[in-house]
Write the structure tokens for this entry.
Amino acid sequence: MSFVKNINDFARAKREKTPISMVTCYDYGFARLVEKSNIDTVLVGDSLGNVVAGFDSTIPVTVDQMIYHTQIVKRGAPSKFLITDLPFMSYHVSIEDSLKNAGRIMKEGGCSALKLEGGEDFAPVVEALVRASIPVVAHLGLTPQSVHKLGGYSVQGRGEEKSSIMKKDARMLQDAGASALVLEMVPEELAGEITEMLSIPTIGIGAGRYCDGQVLVINDLLGMNEEFNPKFLKKYADLATVINGALNQYDSEVKNRKFPEERNAFSGTAGNIKNKVY
Ligand code: KIV
């Protein structure tokens, strides 16, 4: 059973100290599997730029792509609370532009909340979206849309100055009306302090044990990519090995004429096969 049915359940989870589970999802097949699970919430993350499209960052992802994938996930997981990422440059130009893009993603995609990356500078955007009845999840720490500004994908908020900036940002985003805060690649002591300080839940990825919830990329937690092994990741399955084994068995059975068998074939028309190879 999912704990989160609507946006108010984020605050309820925090009050009741119930951890929130979140996974990303991008396609119908996985969405159907997530729908049948106990996972609380689903994020249509712009990480689809990396995971689905094979880009080396989330920067090329567009509003139209986020809408397309949100529609797909919504069809597969209709009962889950769906959050969609606002992609790079869709909320950076002006409040008016942000409202238009956010409105399109919600109306056309069918999600129930939007996520955006960034601190103090984006508090006015959060405020405007919330005023327009769009629930917002904020995102601090490693914010992948800023990879070029940050100089890579590394732990954020280390040291006195950086940690106090992150705490200030977190407070401002909460005050602006954010319903939850994703903390990515943050030292766990800092994530714990932010979690204690806020009345909204924190959802960690690479942010340690003290957050109010956790999020992982679905392909990562299922072990779809043998080469991706960051410290924060736990693989709950080894689908890369399972899939590779299945593909090679199929290949071998086709080549050895073991597949298809009679039970996989249709019959019923009068055939006259001259070059029967079996
Ligand atoms: O895009 C994404 O998938 C995310 C999560 C990793 C938090 O932002």
Summary: The chain has a mean pLDDT of 96.
